[in-house]
């Protein structure tokens, strides 16, 4: 994962210390938190789209 080009979210802090980063491959998407760059979530593009839609619609619920 270190060879990927990581892109910081435009909603992140200007200092870059508190952000979500994303990197794209031909078939997958990688996500990480800038505070813990070794912890990477990798998923297919369709799965990321479904996750984002679930977050937008609130269908994931608030179970904690």
UniProtKB/TrEMBL annotation:
Which Pfam families does the record cross-reference, listed alphabetically?
A: DUF397
Q: What is this protein called?
A: DUF397 domain-containing protein
| InterPro entries assigned | DUF397
Instruction: Say which species the protein is native to.
Output: Streptomyces edwardsiae
Locate the DUF397 domain: which residues?
Answer: 4-56
